[in-house]
Design brief:
With 128 residues, the protein is of the alpha/beta class. The chain has one domain: Glycogen Phosphorylase B (Rossmann fold), CATH 3.40.50. It has two helices and six strands, in the order βαβββββα. The N and C termini lie far apart (49 Å). The model has no long low-confidence stretch (mean pLDDT 84).
């Protein structure tokens, strides 16, 4: 199928990957842009919006309203340090080193935007 300038297909789903999201984590303007754009796309663009950010060490997912995400077809392994739910492993290889990391995913809906927190040991070190 070819598309051209007159193609009027509507975008219905938008995924955003960020390091910050206003109200959860942020040190600069990225948090504002990410949240405001996500909410505008939901409200004015009629899009379903998903945002994924790291779950930093200073964040307590349950107190922020997040719930563990169950992934179908995944066998749970040991929890991440400090995690309250089961996780899965992800290959995080370096050029000369094979390694795996445990990852947990948390989910919440904020102002119509589905927000995911990716929990891994590498993010836990950030405490503020």
């Amino acid at each position: 199928m070819t598309t051209g300038p007159d193609d009027k297909r509507k975008i219905s789903l938008v995924w955003m990957v960020s390091r910050e999201y206003d109200g959860l984590a942020g040190a600069g303007g990225v948090k504002d842009v990410c949240r405001q754009l996500a909410e505008a796309l939901v409200e004015h663009g009629g899009c379903a919006v998903r945002v994924i950010i790291p779950r930093y060490g200073f964040m307590e997912p349950r107190s922020l309203g997040f719930k563990p995400l169950s992934l179908p077809g995944r066998q749970p392994v040991e929890p991440c340090p400090g995690s309250w739910h089961r996780t899965f492993d992800v290959d995080m290889n370096y050029v000369d080193e094979n390694r795996r990391e445990a990852v947990s995913i948390w989910q919440n809906e904020i102002q119509g935007v589905t927000v995911f927190l990716a929990e891994a040991e590498r993010f836990a070190e950030k405490l503020g």
